Amino acid sequence: MVFSSLGIVLLTGCANVIPPCNAKTSPPSSELRNTKWELTRWNLAPNSGGEVRTRQIPQGEASNPIHIIFDTNGQRISGSTGCNRFTAQLEEDARGFTITKIVSTKMACTPQRNELENDFLYELNDYRSIVRNGDQLLMIGADREVLSFTQRPNNNK
């Protein structure tokens, strides 16, 4: 039901969808091997008036951004929550890949960073679809929050 409703929303508003409607949904993990993605925008679920709000997130190298790196084998991801490091397994089937077994370090963070980190790990564990269009990757959560990532150079190759 959630997927069909999301599909209707995306199809009826194709002109307003970013990325465009021809972007790949749930791409195979092989397309993401050796890539790094920085979280550059976090849209919160629409409020009761339908207004989409954004969440403030740290960006750029000096601010220790949230990022995800897909490994060379297409079997794992790793990255930073902005304070701690995390890793997870990728399991793939005909519908795309699923992120499982997420673990992270537990260094002390500021209360604001800790809240952001916990929310990010929740979204990573509970997303419903991923859409890729070139250097943009959208992770759409069950709660209708949308995490927008921009591809960055992967120096860990």
Protein architecture, described:
The structure is a single chain. The chain has 157 residues and is of the alpha+beta class. It has 2 helices and 9 strands, in the order αββββββαβββ. It is globular, with a radius of gyration of 15 Å. The N terminus is likely disordered. The longest helix has 16 residues. Strands 1-7-8-9-2-3-4-5-6 form a 9-stranded antiparallel β-sheet. A hairpin with a 2-residue loop joins β5 and β6. 17% of the residues lie in helices and 36% in strands.
Keywords for this structure?
alpha+beta, 17% helix, 2 helices, nine-stranded antiparallel β-sheet, 157 residues, 9 strands, disordered N terminus
Break the fold down into its secondary structure elements and pairings.
Layout: H1 2-12, E1 24-25, E2 36-43, E3 67-70, E4 76-80, E5 85-93, E6 96-104, H2 111-126, E7 127-133, E8 136-141, E9 146-152
The count of β-strands is 9
State mean pLDDT (0 to 100 scale): 83
Question: Which strand-content bin applies to the residues?
Answer: 35-45%
Quote the distance from N terminus to C terminus.
40 Å
In a nutshell, what does this entry contain?
The protein has two helices and nine strands, in the order αββββββαβββ.
